[in-house]
Amino acid sequence: MNISVIGTGYIGLVAACCLANSGHQVFSVDKDLDKIEKLNRGVIPIYEEGLETLLNKAQQSGKITFSSEIGPALINTDMVIIAVGTPATADGRVDMSYVNDVAESIIDLAAYPLTVIMKSTVPPGTGKLLCKRFFSRAKVPISYSSNPEFLREGKAVWDWYNTDRIVIGTENQETAEKVMELYRDIDAPKICMDITSAEMVKYASNAFLATKISFINEIANLCERVGASIDAVAPAIGMDQRIGPHFLQAGLGYGGSCFPKDTTGLDYISSFNGYHFSLLKSVIEVNTNQRVMIVRKITQALDDLHDKKVAVWGLSFKPDTDDVREAPAVDIIKHLIAEGAHVVACDPVAIDQVKGVFTHNRLDFNTNPYETCRESNAILLATEWSQFLNLDWIRIKGLMKSPYLVIDGRNVLDDKTLQNMGFSYIGVGRS
Ligand SMILES: NC(=O)c1ccc[n+]([C@@H]2O[C@H](COP(=O)([O-])OP(=O)(O)OC[C@H]3O[C@@H](n4cnc5c(N)ncnc54)[C@H](O)[C@@H]3O)[C@@H](O)[C@H]2O)c1
Fold first, then answer.
1. Contacts of residue 390, Cβ cutoff 8 Å, sequence gap at least 6
2. Any domain includes 344
3. What is residue 73's predicted lDDT score, i.e. its pLDDT?
4. HSE (CB half, 13 Å, CA atoms) of 164?
5. The predicted structure's pLDDT at residue 431
6. Is the four-CA dihedral 326, 323, 254, 366 of positive or negative sign?
7. Which of 69, 172, 272, 390 is the most exposed place for a label (fewest CB within 10 A)?
8. 168 forms bridges with which residues in the sheet?
9. What parts of the chain have a pLDDT lower than 70?
């Protein structure tokens, strides 16, 4: 099939490369000229394992092209996949302006019948609204399907081919069959439903996963107070097959480009529809507090943060990605600096991303974790990159200053060993 993908970010680029490698002819568009220039040179503008190889393969076979012009993407195409951003606005709404711009271009420029597939995460009800407001006005017939994406950054390519399910929301059987054809080589249940339900599946899935994270963080906080250990509690809870082991790792809470905006977005949608989603409000509140609580722990352990040096390991919201949107580390660094600390931050791939959004005269960066520890009073492990898990702690101790505080924001370090070596260790919910 001839497919156009609008938006070459974390989702659009993965979709475009994977579809091209499945034999489809893909025309990929982004309004960011810098991204298009890089992609045309075979360089991916993000850090995502395996994606560059896939891009290069697709380019060599002539199955993928990139452009900053949407016009050509609407000619000779069977499908247009929308994968532009839907960020949160300051008041928690979903910013639909990028999606609306693309919809506007489609009705202005489409000259042949086509199917629009929405991969961007959009509030339940959006698809119907877009059809009424935009696509019904097009000069040619346009069919529509919601096809939410569930892949994880850092494992995106693997997830594309090994997804648990493909959700297809449409009011039309012929459209459903066309969307299924996109995924002809993927062995996963393909579930068809109405558009609004498909949109809800995406929000509900993210809200549920966020709920598990906030829940286990609350249990961890309580463990600290009653003298239990989350290391024993969480795995035992997860062994119950009705609960499952995933998303039960206590820590700094969720971040990234999806959970924070999708939880606040769903909360806003609930309020807008006259529903007070109490549970979701608490999930969001717990997540925000978790970041503040870690700063409180550091402040208490160091007595006062003024003129103290803190090394922060990990900036991306999780390992194996350079995405720093809503990353706990970035928020925590802002708190630490506000409390008077000097921060030296370390990350294998995400330093430039943070420099792009936040700089301060008391914030330095270093890609070498040992160098960040020089003269530091404390280390905060904020993102569990594998690079931070097998370091020489004798060398680190020699570089640090008293009280040799290690704050393990992800509960991945060996607490007993560090304590025996003379570090003051603080985890999340570890006894
Ligand atoms: N990132 C994830 O892990 C993930 C997972 C599932 C779903 N999603 C959803 O997918 C959507 C995209 O997310 P992302 O992380 O890829 O965003 P992103 O910000 O990385 O990429 C969006 C891209 O769209 C481009 N764009 C915006 N307006 C455009 C226009 N009019 N024409 C052409 N290009 C345009 C931007 O320049 C940008 O490159 C969001 O709705 C998000 O919620 C993301």
1. none
2. yes
3. 93
4. 5
5. 78
6. negative
7. 390
8. 192
9. none
Residue bearing tokens 């909360």: 267
Q: Is the CB of 120 under 6 A from ligand 1?
A: yes
Give nearest CA residue, ligand 1 atom 39.
9
Give me the phi and psi of 96, to 5 degrees please. -95, 10
Close Cβ partners of 394 (under 8 Å, ≥ 6 residues apart)? 421
User: What does the chain come to in residues?
Assistant: 431
Tokens of residue 68, six digits: 């900053």
Q: Which two tokens stand for residue 32?
A: 């960011």
Contact 193, 168 (CB under 8 A): yes
Q: Which residues pair with 343 in a beta bridge?
A: 310, 363
Residue 373 is which amino acid?
C
Q: What pLDDT is recorded for position 156?
A: 97
Q: CA–CA separation, 311 vs 304, rounded Å?
A: 16
| Closest C-alpha residue for ligand 1 atom 27 | 84
Strand partners, 309: 342
Identify the three-state secondary structure at position 240.
coil
- One-letter identity of residue 304: D
For the CA of 7, the closest atom of ligand 1 is: 24
Considering the domain boundaries, does residue 252 fall inside one? no
Ligand 1 centroid to 81 CA: how many Å?
Answer: 11
Whether 320 and 413 share a structural domain: yes
**Interatomic CA distance for residues 396 and 413, integer angstroms:** 14
- Asked if residue 264 and residue 158 are part of one domain, the reply reads no
Torsion of CA 50, 52, 57, 58, to 10 degrees: 110
Q: How many structural domains are present in the chain? A: 2
CATH number of the domain encompassing residue 8: 3.40.50.720
Residue-number span of the structural domain to which 13 is assigned = 2-193
What pLDDT shows up at residue 76? 87
Element (H, E) at 357: helix 351-357
CA of 233 to the centre of ligand 1 (A): 38
Short-list 389, 395, 402, 406, CA closest to 370: 395
* The residue type at 257: S
Token digits for 426? 């603080």
In a domain, 125, yes or no: yes
CA angle at 116 for the pair 196 and 206, rounded to the nearest 5°: 40
CA of 180 to the centre of ligand 1 (A): 22
Element (H, E) at 168: strand 166-169
Sheet with 363-365: strands ordered across: 363-365, 342-346, 309-313, 378-381, 405-408, 424-426
Radius of gyration (C-alpha) of the chain in whole angstroms: 23
